[in-house]
Design a protein that fits this description.
Helix 6 crosses helix 13, helix 10 crosses helix 11 and helix 13 packs antiparallel against helix 14. With about 325 residues, this protein is α+β, with helices and mostly antiparallel strands.
Length: about 325
């Protein structure tokens, strides 16, 4: 699985120095807002200011497209970019992302988190404007309609429990970055009669979720399966095809000594365990669908949470 850890309070240069000391490797500076660390024991790490316009040298490309790139000196362009970066750093995080890691190596993200914390990295709760996340990209064990459906159904069933456990920051909930799924879409997938082909499953997802801003983003997975189908609907969006679920719900609490990255990872493990428990999933999905369809659903939430907690209590 891969990880993406967002944070503020440090420059890219300082972040790269901390990462090099922690995991070793060789630094490649792509531009002032984007660098990579190659040849580590854990593959390549990417560090960037999470603002694609700067990361991809958008200003230079735009000036070239309108024929003004020769009219401005390079230091002027760099100054404009720095001005844009200074304005954006109040709300735009830096991000360190890993290569896909084998299970025995995932502890490195905890080492990286601790190293960044000791050098002043700030997480979600450090500022009301910091809607920073800790994203997890677990590899899909088997790419099949049934496997994806079971995972999505398990996520729907456990969503309220995950929110209670992870306590996503209010700023993150108010922004669209981790929007929950629409009830109409959940009803569609929870219906036991729903038996789509892979193209239909992808088309239905795109119809209800034409955005990357979901607590569980399936666009990277569906782009890996059928890139043309996804990009016909998502033209212009930057989507990285990969055979993973993109779990975006956890906060980045990088500045908290008491917070550990495995807490977020363990919340995802619950989704995988329920997805693999066919009997329990079918029963819980049927109960949750009944609640969604009830005009009194708002009064049934507490009973539902107790139902989920009973399943959790029975886990070995």
């Amino acid at each position: 699985m891969g990880f993406e850890l967002e944070y503020g309070g440090m420059t890219l240069k300082k972040s790269a120095a901390v990462l090099l000391k922690t995991v070793g490797g060789r630094l490649e500076v792509v531009n002032p807002y984007h660098c990579k660390i190659h040849d580590t024991p854990y593959g390549t790490f990417t560090l960037m200011l999470d603002f694609q316009f700067l990361v991809e040298s958008g200003l230079s490309r735009w000036l070239h497209s309108v024929g003004l790139d020769q009219a401005l000196e390079p230091h002027v362009v760099e100054g404009i970019e720095r001005f844009i970066a200074d304005l954006s750093e109040a709300v735009v995080p830096y991000e360190v992302s890993t290569s896909p890691l084998p299970l025995e190596s995932i502890g490195v993200i905890e080492e990286v988190k601790e190293a960044l914390r000791r050098h002043g990295a700030m997480g979600t709760k450090a500022d009301p404007l910091y809607a920073f996340g800790f994203h997890i990209n677990p590899e899909v064990a088997f790419i099949s309609v049934d496997g994806i459906l079971e995972t999505m159904r398990a996520f729907f069933v456990l969503y309220d429990e995950l929110v209670e456990e992870l306590q996503p920051d209010m700023t993150r909930r108010l922004t669209p970055y981790i929007d929950p799924f629409d009830e109409a879409y959940m009803r569609l997938l929870l219906d036991p009669a729903y038996d789509p082909t892979m193209p239909q499953l992808i088309d239905d997802y795109l119809e209800y979720n034409p955005t990357r801003n979901r607590a569980l983003d399936l666009l990277p997975l569906f782009a890996h399966i059928d890139l043309d189908r996804v990009m016909r609907r998502m033209e212009g969006e930057k989507i990285s095809p990969r055979p993973t679920y993109h779990y975006r719900l956890p906060n980045s609490r990088v500045d908290e000594a008491a917070w550990h990255t495995w807490e977020a990872w363990n919340s995802w493990v619950l989704v995988e365990r329920l997805a693999a428990d066919t009997e329990a999933l079918a029963a819980l999905a049927a109960d949750y669908l009944e609640i969604l369809d009830s005009p009194f659903s708002i009064f049934m939430k507490e009973r539902w949470r107790e139902r989920v907690k009973t399943w959790l209590a029975n886990l070995s």
